[in-house]
Amino acid sequence: MLVSDCCYPCKQTNISTDLGLSFPQPVQEYPDPQPGSDLPSNQTIPIDNQKRDPKEKESEAANPNSPKPQKTKKMPVFKTPFNGYAVKFSPFYESRLAVATAQNFGILGNGRLHVLELSPAGPISEFASFDTADGVYDVTWSESHESLLIAAVADGSVKLYDLALPPASNPVRSLQEHSREVHSLDFNPVRRDSFLSSSWDDTIKLWTLDRPTSVRTFKEHAYCVYSSVWNPRHADVFASASGDCTIRVWDVREPGSTMILPAHEFEILACDWNKYDDCVLVSASVDKSIKVWDVRNFRIPVSVLNGHSYAVRKVKFSPHRRGAIASCSYDMTVCLWDYMVEDALIGRYDHHTEFAVGVDMSVLVEGLLASTGWDELVYVWQHGTDPRAP
Amino acid sequence: MEKAINRQRVLLQHLSPSSSAAEDESSLSASVCVAGDSAAYQRTSVFGDDVVIVAAYRTALCKSKRGGFKDTYPDDLLAPVLRALLEKTNLNPNEVGDIVVGTVLAPGSQRASECRMAAFYAGFPETVPVRTVNRQCSSGLQAVADVAAAIKAGFYDIGIGAGLESMTANPMAWEGSINPKVKEFVQAQDCLLPMGITSENVAHRFGVTRQEQDQAAVESHKRAAAATATGKFKDEIIPVSTKIVDPKTGDEKLVTISVDDGIRPNATMSDLAKLKPVFKKNGTTTAGNSSQVSDGAGAVLLMKRSVAMRKGLPILGVFRTFAAVGVDPAVMGIGPAVAIPAAVKSAGLELDDIDLFEINEAFASQFVYCRKKLDLDPEKINVNGGAMAIGHPLGATGARCVGTLLHEMKRRGKDCRFGVVSMCIGTGMGAAAVFERGDCVDELRNARTAENNNLLSKDAQ
């Protein structure tokens, strides 16, 4: 398959043969972090530094001459009518965000897919929204078309939406092949023409935008597949996280999985690849821990990150900082970690009042985070600021 | 249904620490919902055709004949609050479908004309109609309910429910003779009882002591003073520029009234004990434990939720239900004890679900009786003081209580979900309305500090 002109500078890298696999030359990579953009390793963001006693606030309002604490930019909040399940920043527009929501916590009822518009100095507004017959569990943007997005619906279907078309002609396509809930989607950032869907029917399906049926089905896991994520550098490699307590690394060109990582003793709810190191991935589990693995030496994790008090629902590697990981958990917090640093927890945000189930980091705006949870709220904020407005 | 159970099972296994799928002794297990809310009520109902309140304002309430508004024309009390509704929401006045003003004592047609004139002063064009409504002390609340009903009926999308009373201009009086037929109908005759006598009847029949009444009055003044001091009323009071004429010299002074002038921060039990009963010899109702005779106005802007969202207006509250009931005119003060359960029931709720009350303190006797009869938590009622401290301009009270209630619910945060406004009505009635907190369209306020770091919602506790 031909690769369309890439926007990132092409660069030759050493082909890693340690895995016993031969990877094709990578055609794009994420730019190296700017010097000075990394936080010094001993800096920690104080927890809850922005929470203020309401009485303090009132007395401050009464006395305008009292010195005000540093002004933080107002980071807005959006309330969805249904419980939030996933957020995804658009790879084309820095102010666009997709939110997957489901009624009644996704257990029974309808779903809605929101596309939100963030304005620099004002509230979040809704650009479009699509109703579905069952809850929407995940959403992903197409890397090839700026107006295309794909929703993972709990009735087993994968729906394509095109924002450029009028609402009456959406969804453009509904792909019904999974026999159970589709839990996650991921679009191939290298090839940009295909995407994966992971389902509770223990399978992962590979789809392309032009075909009405799946290209391939990967059936090896013994329980729900919660997440499958493409490798950011190698077009045919992806990893999947499953409730059978394993992570599997797959190569599309091979008939089966190429590596089985028994990463945890409990279900693994999410995984992600390091955007700056193509051999490092992270897994998040019901055992409340997050483990970072190097596929070249997969017996022992590179790092174990403890800190959540309930199962960790989602993890994402930062597109801007080499070791930074964002995670959200059933303990209602969103945490930011840096596994390369001694004191790994670099930020903890407890703005949600119900399970925090979706988190994303923007590729286009450095340090911009979005999260959603079962409290029906979507927060967008800059790392280091308070997600709730001042 | 099978699907729902399976999904619940998958989610539960994320929270259960056991590694095997078998039933283990785990600290977490699924159970039937034991939430305090009534199961029948849907937790999140956000429908475009809900009638919502986007703004509620009032003037300060001042003592009649001696207070700040003693030389103010009644229409000059109403106009500022109507104008405030327009200015604060940037609403085009042409879009308002009707203005309904609750007003009691003034001659009907004259007051209706005054209200029409007030609308012109406020900047409303001739195309916006105005009418008045009179259900005695509940007129302000009835006005809000009438507008809500009209919006629901589809007569218009945006309306204003207001209340106005100048008891300086129109004292309580009976014009003309009384129909001799009342002698044959006890209850008709009881309609003519002075309100204070009905208060004594309530105190006597239901055993409300003088101490309890004075205590309620002290509490009312204390809370109202605290609210004024912390600036809580600044959100809802619209300053009114008017004049005061010195009775002795006749000099006019221009003033701006923005503070309720009836509140006595230093009221104590001993001060109140000194007051003599006013209505009945050896009675318990005094000037201190009765509502004050006042002048004031209030106004509430209502519209359909879909209209509010289209205009990007923050939603202060949602109008849920209204109930008017009838009771024995001789003990008219028991009205709220009958009206509140009626309104709460028609909202599909229980009394426990109501987080905040504004019960008009016409007299401490009836207020204390209603509170005891319904077994309500005093910490939830009139938290910023009531009519004994702030004042009771008859027609305005309903509208001003709506504003006070909704602003307080907004301050209290998401925890404070339902509120009730209620009052007794002279001639033996009661009225109550249930409001719901405006859910967040753009602003979130969580003003209460959490005592313990228990982040679970109120349902789960």
| Rounded average pLDDT of chain A | 83
Low-confidence spans of chain B: pLDDT under 50, at least 5 residues?
Answer: 21-26, 36-43, 440-450
Strand order of the largest sheet of chain A: 1-28-27-26
Largest sheet of chain A: 4 strands, antiparallel
The largest interface is:
A-B, 38 and 28 residues
Principal-axis shape of chain B equals globular
CATH class of chain A: Mainly Beta
CATH superfamily of chain A: YVTN repeat-like/Quinoprotein amine dehydrogenase
| Quaternary structure | heterodimer
Give the overall average pLDDT of chain B: 89
Could you say which structural class the secondary elements and strand pairing of chain A correspond to? mainly beta
Verbal overview:
The complex is a heterodimer of chains A (390) and B (461). Chain A has 390 residues and is mainly beta. Chain A has one domain (77-382): 7 Propeller (Methylamine Dehydrogenase, Chain H), CATH 2.130.10. Chain A has one helix and 28 strands. Chain A has a four-stranded antiparallel β-sheet, with no helix packed on it. The longest helix of chain A has 9 residues, at 54-62. Chain B is of the alpha+beta class. Chain B is 33% helix and 18% strand. Chain B has 13 helices and twelve strands. Chain B is globular, with a radius of gyration of 24 Å. Residues 21-26, 36-43 and 440-450 of chain B have low confidence and may be disordered.
